[in-house]
């Protein structure tokens, strides 16, 4: 359990397909249950951000990724989330742990999906919106 003012470290992975669509998952658990977000989750004890991104992406999407540069950080409630660019290097897209669905989304798709609060605004600030 974290101290009252301590934030829980989390990671997210920003992966795009050849068409420039962004990988999103439909969250199965809170926070954000029933909403679409980038794949990610908590950094476990003994993990660094790179290991956590690789694990979370595999668990939630079935894809193997190679994390790259830090795109940005956000604070959402008790979580501080570091989002990294990710190159897909293997696997088959499927919804896994903590995800009800997973799909590649174009910019036009974002308006039709129930997204986690602040996702579009944050991606826009980072210059990371899908094509």
TrEMBL record:
Pfam families to which the protein is assigned, alphabetical: NUDIX
Entries under InterPro entries matching the protein: Nudix_hydrolase, NUDIX_hydrolase-like_dom_sf, NUDIX_hydrolase_CS, NUDIX_hydrolase_dom
Limits of the Nudix hydrolase domain: 6-129
Domain of life: Bacteria
Names of required cofactors: Mg(2+)
Keywords of this entry: Hydrolase
A molecular function GO annotation: hydrolase activity
Similarity section: Belongs to the Nudix hydrolase family.
Protein name as catalogued: NUDIX domain-containing protein
Organism encoding this protein: Pseudonocardia broussonetiae
